[in-house]
Design goal:
Elements: H1 3-21, H2 25-32, H3 39-42, E1 53-54, E2 65-68, E3 84-88, E4 94-99, E5 103-108, E6 120-128, E7 133-142, E8 145-147, E9 153-155, E10 159-169, E11 179-180, E12 186-190, E13 224-227, E14 231-234, E15 245-248, E16 261-267, E17 273-278, E18 286-289, E19 300-301, E20 307-311, E21 319-323, E22 336-338, E23 346-349, E24 358-363, E25 368-373
Parallel strand pairs: 4-12, 5-10, 17-23, 18-22
Antiparallel strand pairs: 1-15, 2-14, 3-4, 3-8, 5-12, 6-7, 7-10, 8-9, 10-11, 13-14, 13-24, 15-25, 16-17, 16-20, 18-23, 19-22, 20-21, 24-25
């Protein structure tokens, strides 16, 4: 039996389960196209435990460094693709995806000089559900260098890096091609509160500057960063954080230092469903999970004309609103999919397009996220 056929059996079972679970799918389909209400299905009250908006204090002389993306739009244009920076671990620098939807550095083993002599931390893997890719290899402790388009460099202290010797694929992926000893793997996972393979904040390169501290023990440089459509600013200071609205995060679980950012999501004319948000520069598409989504169902593409609004409770100036198919709006994702698995809480993965309307900030020392209108 071929590998393709082995994958077909669970796929059929998954779709059959979705059809059984999708009681009221006709009403859902009508609502997705904006043709009818689905308020009873998707309405949830705003969580009572969402922290209020506050403003942290940053030093006027606190150090920071700015790295413009290799594929940045310049001063005025929109960001048209997932952002990239140069990445090296003592050898050749190659373009690496900047991914706020994961945590951890993955780099081809062949691109890490002296691999055999580095401290080995054991085998591991990084699983990316959106793309269906699985990076497998050996964790080593080594310093990495991030390089911007203007040649500016940011060098981390020694940190865990996955030296990738295999690219595997989830059975749900159609485009992924498995390979042994891939030569072109380079990813900068710089997100937080991802759980599972992405839990440990010590694997986030943007929090590993030599003059940064550790959780609960701040250093001279604030453990945090600012993401814009033009590039990354590592370290937080008063001047570059002016104009942000902030949300205090709750305590994290499962190895994560902080909980995800809260959000309330509205689809067409439905009542808001509140849960959490992932600002994900590693994705060109939006993923949604709402109470009306069929449990265990396949991903359902939202049709052109579907309207999505994302709000951050406590930040009245933050409203990310798009209409699917509106290609004239640079904030509109390439696609939007309703997806599982079952979860009582709503969820939205925004895609990198959010950066065409807002700057984004994460403060790991203080436990804040922030947004401000992009200039």
């Amino acid at each position: 039996m071929s590998a393709t056929r082995r994958a077909d059996a669970p796929l059929r079972a998954w779709r059959q389960a979705a059809r059984r679970a999708c009681f009221g799918c006709a009403a859902l389909t009508l609502a997705l196209a904006g043709g009818g209400p689905a308020k009873a299905a998707s309405a949830t009250a705003e969580p009572a435990n969402i922290p209020p908006a506050v403003r942290p204090a940053y030093g006027a002389d606190a150090p920071s460094i700015f790295l413009p993306y290799l594929n940045g739009p310049g001063a005025a244009g929109p960001l048209m693709d997932r952002p990239k920076l140069g990445l090296s671990a003592g050898g050749k620098s190659i373009p690496a995806l900047v991914d706020t939807g994961s945590t951890g550095v993955g780099l081809s083993k062949s691109l890490i000089p002296g691999f055999a002599t580095l401290p080995h931390l054991g085998r591991g893997q990084l699983v990316y559900n959106g793309s269906g890719r699985v990076l497998r290899g050996v964790y080593v402790r080594v310093s990495v260098t991030l390089t911007g388009a203007d040649g500016t460099r940011f060098v981390t202290r020694d940190m865990p890096v996955l030296a990738v010797d295999e690219l595997a694929c989830l059975w749900t992926s159609g485009a992924c091609q498995p390979r042994r000893n891939p030569k072109d793997i380079a990813i900068l996972g710089v997100g937080f509160a991802r759980g599972g393979d992405f839990a440990a904040p010590a694997t986030n390169p943007l929090l590993e500057a030599p003059d940064m501290g550790a959780p609960g023990a701040p250093g001279a440089m604030r453990r945090g960063y600012l993401v814009s459509r033009a590039g990354l600013r590592i370290g937080l200071d008063a001047a570059h954080t002016a104009g942000f609205g902030f949300l205090k995060l709750g305590a994290g679980t499962g190895g994560s230092q902080w909980a995800p950012a809260p959000a309330c999501i509205t689809l067409n004319d439905a009542a808001p469903a509140c849960g959490r948000m992932l600002m994900d520069t590693g994705s060109g598409g939006m993923f949604l999970r709402l109470p009306a989504t069929p449990a265990n169902g396949p991903r359902i593409p939202l049709p052109p004309g579907a309207r999505i609004a994302v709000r951050a409770p406590g930040l009245p100036d933050f409203l990310y609103a798009v209409r699917i198919g509106d290609t004239a709006n640079p904030l509109t994702p390439k696609r939007a999919l309703l997806t599982g698995p079952p979860n009582p809480s709503a969820f939205v993965n925004t895609s990198f397009h959010l950066l065409n309307g807002f700057d984004y900030l994460y403060d790991a020392d203080g436990g804040f996220v922030g947004f401000r209108p992009a200039p």
